[in-house]
Amino acid sequence: MRFLITLMFFSLAGFSASAEWTPDIEAWNSPMPEQPAAVIIRNATIWTGTDERILENADLVIRNGRIHSVGHGLSAPRNAIEIDAEGKHVTPGIIDAHSHAAILGGVNEASRISTADVRIRDVIDSESINIYRQLAGGVTAVNLLHGSANAIGGQMSVIKMRWGANPADLVFEAAPEGIKFALGENPKQSNWQVDEPRYPQTRHGVEQIIREKFQQAADYRQSMDDMPRGRAARDRVPPRPNHELAAIAEVIHGERDVHSHAYRADEMLALMRLAEQFDFVIKTFHHVLEGYKIAPQMAEHGAAGSGFIDWWSFKYEARDAVAYNMALMHESGVLTGIHSDNPELARRMNLEAAKAVRYGGVDEHEAFKMISTWPADQLGVGDRTGRLADGFDADLVIWNGHPLSVYSKVEQTWVDGRRHFDLEADLRMREQLEAEHAELIALALDENGNENGNDNNNAGEDSAPERRRVHGFATHLTGYRDSELDHDEYCIFHAH
Amino acid sequence: MTNTVFSMLTKTTRSLAAGTLLLLAGIAQADVTALVGATLHPVSSESIDNGTLIIRDGRIEALGDDIDIPDGAQIIELDGLHVYPGFVHPATQLGITEIASVAGTVDTAEMGNINAAVRVEVAVNHDSDLLPVSISGGVLSAHVVPGGGLIRGSSAVMNLDGWSWEDMVINAPVGMHISFPSGAVEDDENEDLQRIERVIDRARHWKQASEAAKAGNGSAPARNDQLEALVPLLSGEVPLFLHANRYDVMETALDWAQEQEFDNIILVGDPDVRYIAERLASDDIPVIMSRVYAMPTRRWEPYDMAYSAAARLDEAGVRFALTDSGGGMDVANARNLPFQAGSAVAHGLTHESALKSVTLWPAEILGVADQLGSLEPGKRASLFVADGDPLEVTTSIERVWIDGQEFDLMRDRHRRLYERYRERNARAQGRDPE
Questions:
Q1: Do B249 and A476 touch (CB under 8 A)?
Q2: Strand partners for B39
Q3: Cβ–Cβ of B294/A492 closer than 8 Å?
Q4: How many CB atoms lie under 10 A from the CB of residue B398?
Q5: Is residue B326 less than 8 Å (CB to CB) from chain A?
Q6: Of B246, B387, B394, B398, which to mutate for an interface test with A (greatest number of A Cβ within 10 Å)?
């Protein structure tokens, strides 16, 4: 069956390569765009994400999915697809270091205070329409994370936005292992009623439980290491396998990066000091609202900061969030990124980067790096994506204007040298959908315009319940699966 | 760095100005200010390069490229900068909420279904930290809307700066707000709609009885706060703000409101308004469209369905204003309002319409266009100075005047924390803070 479907995809892809590739709003029915052997983009303004900064009137050559060269007056490889990008800007693909946009069946495993044993990798939703929509906003990779209910959450998964691929093939194979931690109001259950409160209920309790888990994990690893190998093991009862402690042991041995949800300066400082006791480095603080208050300490420890740039005052711990945070952390030498944490916002991350220019005067190229180059570094894939340079994956965006301008939009998004979003193909898809819609309506209506096969008018009874938000000025969304609207409900106070 | 220098300049200018005021009190016309050298963007007319704008007694007295500066006016040089009227937020909970998760700071929604008699302006916290942050983003006035129940109460257009809510009221009541129940689309006997109808019916009777009593025909009806509050709506003194999302709900809501013979209706709805644009245009019903930044209402819709909705309204000739969600995370970020208008331009709206949709058009829809929404003689001198196009995110807003008084941007909590920690971090790392 799988083989048949694959075969069908290939034939479709083969057909549309010569005709016109058209995506679909269902990933399973969306043909994988071809990966041309050679592509040359000419006459573009190229934002490299490297020390080359912004190259005017430059060319970029892609070969077999990788960037072959970037520079001026490049010659086209034989049979290369040529794209004239005069007046357009080309940037590295946007990388969202904090996303819940493609997770099947619940973002939070809101049970134990530590759920280091659960894995996003097992529940990637390759059918989430968010993937296609975010491609339309220039996003080429995202970090799928658990929610923030637990001090130690689950194992994250970095994916590339290969719309049409199956869950396993979305996984960005080069990404190192990572885990979600969470500090502050959410793990201590501040903002909702719980029938049976669990320990901890304070920030010092959160710090304590993490320390205890680190100690247990160290012991667990030791007991595993102490287990003799080969014949000597015959007479020994091996330690009971513990997937939770095994994952935490990887953390304290520097084999699994910590990506910790955190708002306040005190809790971030405490986690860094704890990590130092165990001789490892906290890779990245997420949200990092008060990062600016301890930016020198973060820089010294080596922790990166990945935040939303201007959300504030939605919780008490977001009281001192300032949009200048990114500029301040950046100035202090912190590896700084901007993330979405929201599938709608993720579609316009370029404007979030523009806010780093507005608030604190960050240089435009540096600001763009905050949504691409540096998130790539934070996720440990900075040698593969987030830069337009020789040897990097051809993950890039063609904009119709300045990428930080509110008046610009994405024309094409390429992932692995495949054109996964194309404005013209998107328009073709709309036409197809409209035609299909008209056909279905015609089928549903008889020649007199009456509804077919719906005599007793009970359509509402077994149709899927509509998901409704009743917060403030409610929005009504139709036809979405719950997983596509899922978010970290502990994080945003049910408001997005 | 520019920010620091700028804020120091602002402070200096302000203290100088204050000093001058004290010294010259009673001698010169200290309440006259002349903004000179900037490009003026009146919104209601063509831009004026190197223009002069005169502020007297809190109002705009004159503007143009050939204006005499009155003797004694305080002259503010703004070469190379741009002056715009303040953004008018078309629908928000600014002032009535502070921290969404802390119940004690939230006054957005009264309990119960019928709250016709609540008037939101009395709950506006004039010292809310959200207000200076909004002002700092150029949002200088806002339509504050109560959120609770089916009949939600009356709203107010507020100045975002003042010494009390009473000082800040620009127009109240602006109108009566009704949340149209979505269940009424498929149910002729929808209970919520019947509740609304019963109350409106009773209010009509109350009004009749009260008018009869005034004319000497019978005794006055018993006082009833909820019913009395609906009289201005029933007599057409204030408009009906009809809140509905989803096009079928909106259409049903409009049918209902027109059957009820409300002839002054303003629709507040999501980007689905694009699907009823023709009707809105032909019935001349103005729209406050929430959220350019929204997910497409339906999964199968184009990714830009909400982004391009405003352009659709404009093409159809609908009168409209653009707003954010008005609640949730958007309250604290009311400052992002202009960017929603800007993004609509990327998807087909003209720049001129985009700018109007967050300035002049909301002022017109909210009945305050004689005071706000453009730079015109006689209007409130509530304006800001920017270093470029204020719909662009990278533009920075440098100075603000509200009712002719310069606003100290360092009252913005974010700017304060920025200055404080910028200096401290530089010191801690042995860097030069500049």
A1: yes
A2: B82
A3: no
A4: 19
A5: yes
A6: B394
What does the radius of gyration of chain B's CA atoms come to, in whole angstroms? 23
Distance CA A199, CA A112 (A): 9
pLDDT confidence tier of residue A16, bands split at 50, 70 and 90: very low
- For residue A200, whether the previous peptide bond is cis, meaning omega lies within 30 degrees of 0, is yes
- Distant-in-sequence, close-in-space partners of B343: CB < 8 Å, separation ≥ 6: A348, A351, A406, B292, B293, B307
pTM of the model: 0.92
For the residues B146-167, what does the mean pLDDT come to? 97
- The answer to whether the bond into B377 is cis (omega within 30° of 0) is no
The CA–CA distances, whole Å, from B27 to A71, A474, B137, B183, B406 equal 67, 56, 35, 66, 21
The confidence score (pLDDT) of residue A471 equals: 34
pLDDT category of residue A489 using cuts at 50, 70 and 90: confident
Q: Which residues in A85-234 belong to E strands, given as ranges?
A: 89-92, 94-99, 139-144, 152-155, 157-160, 178-182
> Largest alpha-carbon pair distance within chain B?
85
Q: Looking at the partner chain, which of B298, B347, B418 has a beta carbon nearest the beta carbon of A360?
A: B418
Residue of B21 and A308 predicted with greater confidence:
A308
ipTM of the complex: 0.92
Alpha-helix runs per DSSP H in B333-409: 337-346, 351-356, 360-365
SS3 B259: helix
Whether A24 and chain B come into contact, CB under 8 Å, resolves to no
Closest CA relative to residue B60, chosen from B381, B403, B385: B381
Amino acid A92 reads P
The gap from C-alpha B426 to its chain's centroid, in whole angstroms, comes to: 39
Q: What residue ranges define each of the domains in chain B, with the CATH number in brackets? A: 87-372 (3.20.20.140)
CA pair distance A403, A352, nearest whole angstrom: 11
- Locate B57 and state its tokens: 């007694």
The verdict on a CB contact (< 8 Å) between A404 and B394 is yes
Residues B358 and A234: their CA atoms lie apart, in Å, by: 77
- For chain A, say whether B299 makes contact (Cβ under 8 Å): yes
By the 8 A CB rule, do B69 and B85 touch? no
Spatial distance between the Cα atoms of B322 and B347, rounded to a whole number of angstroms: 14
Q: Is the pLDDT of residue B284 over 70?
A: yes
* Angle subtended at Cα A152 by Cα A324 and Cα A155, rounded to the nearest 5 degrees: 90
Is residue A475 within 8 A of residue B270, CB to CB? The reply is yes
Q: A339 with B126: CB under 8 angstroms?
A: no
- Whether residue A189 lies within 8 A of chain B, CB to CB, comes out as no
Distance CA B30, CA B380 (A): 17
Rounded-to-integer distance, Cα B50 and Cα A47, Å? 35
Element containing residue B142 per DSSP (H, E): strand B139-144
pLDDT at residue B11, rounded to an integer: 44
Average pLDDT over residues A53-80: 98
Question: Rg of chain A over CA atoms, in angstroms?
Answer: 24
**Can you tell me the mean pLDDT for B334-361?**
98
CB B267 within 8 A of CB B254: yes
Average pLDDT score, chain A: 91
Name the phi and psi angles at A462, rounded to 5: -110, 10
Q: Which two tokens stand for residue B170?
A: 């620009």
